[in-house]
Amino acid sequence: MKNRLAVVRTLKALDRALAPFRDKGESVALVPTMGALHAGHLALVRHARRKADRVVVSIFVNPTQFAPTEDFSSYPRRLAADVDALAGENVDLVWAPDAAVMYPDGFATRIAPEGPALAGLEDKFRPHFFGGVATVVAKLFGQVRPDVAVFGQKDYQQLKVVTRLAADLDLRVAVVGMPTVREKDGLALSSRNQYLSAEERARAPALHRVLAGCAEKIAAGRPIKGVMESARKALTRDGFAVDYVEARHAETLAPVKSRKDGPIRLLVAAKLGTTRLIDNLAV
């Protein structure tokens, strides 16, 4: 039987709900989400449960990380269904503020991250994005004061930005990255997958398949530049409009020319129709 799960919407209610955990000296893990939860999110929740005594899941569709041309208004929102899914996962608390709580009248402070936030990947195509992410994550960390925060590796550049944010601002939270959860055909789970038509969904696994092929070739000693050029051509033939497909240093996200340059992460962003998909893979 599912637990009766508390959902709080105000800062005062959040403080009241967290107080008993703090009074007992219990550790707290936070899983930040924008809702529309899928199996990938639930995997993060289960990992958070292994990392701390208590698990808090935040659900907030953050307007500051969407550009005017992006899908903020249509982004799926289904709080009741999300809470129902979390109730079976031993979650202790859902923090679900609205925009007026997160960005009240007079709000005038924003974080401008650098380092991995300026790697020329997502930031090149969504220059507003990481400022919005960094600001909302810093707020969530300040509100919940978690000991651990769990993020998925599918948003790899975001994971590196948040890790740098926590370290640079001494936020006293351990940021943990979890491997990407995939469908059986390799497609990375994403709330935006529901936007794909049936025909697009059938083609979408090529994104992961091409990355996996690149990883094999680079590991075998093939020149990185030629491998990545071939990947772009292959994705284009498969009907993707490619924003980037890159080989980068796995920690700094700096460009790499050979395997000698350090651990390598392959990253891709491409559109199928109107749906933008991202993925990444270690070499």
How does the helix and strand content classify structurally?
Answer: alpha/beta
Q: Which H/E pattern describes the elements? A: EHEHEHEHHHEHEHHHEEE
The overall average pLDDT, rounded, is: 96
Helix content: 25-40%
Based on Cα principal axes, name the global outline. Answer: globular
Output the strand order for the largest sheet. Answer: 1-4-3-2-5-6
At CATH level 3, the topology of the largest domain is Rossmann fold
DSSP E strands, number: 9
Distance between the termini: 42 Å
Q: What number of structural domains do the residues give?
A: 2
Q: Stretches where pLDDT falls below 50 for ≥5 residues?
A: none
CATH-wise, what's the superfamily of the largest domain?
Answer: HUPs
Radius of gyration: 19 Å
Question: How much β-strand is present in the residues?
Answer: 15-25%
CATH class of the largest domain: Alpha Beta
Corresponding CATH architecture of the largest domain: 3-Layer(aba) Sandwich
The number of distinct helices, counting runs of at least 4 residues, comes to 10
Largest sheet: 6 strands, parallel
Main location: cytoplasm
Family: Belongs to the pantothenate synthetase family.
Enzyme class: ligase
Function: Catalyzes the condensation of pantoate with beta-alanine in an ATP-dependent reaction via a pantoyl-adenylate intermediate.
